[in-house]
Amino acid sequence: MHSALRQVTSVDGARPDALPPEVCEPKSPVVLRGLAAEWPVVQAARRSDADALTYLRRFYLDATVNAVRLPARHHGRVFYNEAMSGFNFESLRLPLGDVLDELEGYGGDAGAPTLYVGSTTVDTCLPGFRAENDLSVPGQDPLVSIWLGNRSRVAAHCDLPDNIACCVAGRRRVLLFPPDQIDNLYIGPLDFTPAGQAISLVDFENPDFDRFPRFAEALIHAQVAELEPGDALVVPSMWWHHVEALDAFNVLINYWWRRAAAWMDSPANVLEYALLAIRDLPAEQRQAWRAWFDHYVFDFTEVNIAHIPAERRGALGTIDALEARKLRAKLLRKLNR
């Protein structure tokens, strides 16, 4: 399947201290070949898994991390159980050093369980690591996280922030879909998820087209990125991505940032409240509210409120940190009635 998909556009020559400007405001995925190739951790990983583990242990103190372990029969797919009443993995709190020791002990055994640590702040678990392995995102102060484990498959999901994911050890394969493919990806529950984000219920390794027929349309729009250690993938906000860690030991460092003011709320909060307040209205009322949202939000321009004196625009005018606090307080009063 992967060979038939369109490859993500690749760019050569980008450097950690000189990212192309378009990378900081991405509109589509791009692979930055060799972006992190000079990082000491990448050079260690290219020599051997043992060297990569030794390098990481230089920075480990006593941090405890969230991890998951799942039986080998699941082939690394972090997912729900058969009845969708729970999950197919065990959630753990482990010292990072124990995780590294366990992964080293597997020694590449294809029959070993999957052990996976996701989205852990680098500065917390490996203090000093970024002094030797880092990149600069102009105009942003990104959250920097580490993901590590043996072979794993993380179901397609999307994130609100923009993202640069640096493949440090092992190979990664990422399938990406534009945000508008949500209808064709068969997304699961919003409030019962393996890791906080709603995920596609399709098994990308063995898709059931009888159960998920529209997934064939999603594949027409898919792009695939094959990453070697040192490569980086730019994932724009809200793009769906399915991530496979392909080798016996894999490490990824990612940089997340939002192109929004710090005082702005998460749009996911609006979606949840819209489910409560709008979705089950009569069809003609939903269409009326669609017009309001288009007018004031999705298709908004200053022309739409030009007839209102500036001093009377309130929430329709420019929202800054002060106006945001006032609006949030007003909403809280209404919600707490």
Write a brief caption for the model.
This protein is of the alpha+beta class. The protein is 25% helix and 24% strand. The N and C termini lie far apart (53 Å).
* Largest sheet entry: 9 strands, mixed
Which assembly state applies to the chains in this document?
single chain
Q: Report how far the terminal alpha carbons are from each other.
A: 53 Å
What percentage of residues falls in helices of 4 or more residues?
A: 10-25%
Low-confidence stretches: none
Number of helices: 9
**Shape by Cα distribution:** globular
Structural class, from helix and strand content? Answer: alpha+beta
Task: Describe the protein.
- This protein is α+β, with helices and mostly antiparallel strands.
- It contains nine helices and 15 strands.
- The strands form two sheets. A nine-stranded mixed beta sheet has the order 2-3-13-10-15-8-7-4-6.
- Strand 2, helix 1 and strand 3 form a beta-alpha-beta unit.
- Helix 2 (40-47) packs antiparallel against helix 3.
- The chain is globular.
- It starts with 5 loop residues before the first strand and ends with a helix.
- The model has no long low-confidence stretch (mean pLDDT 95).
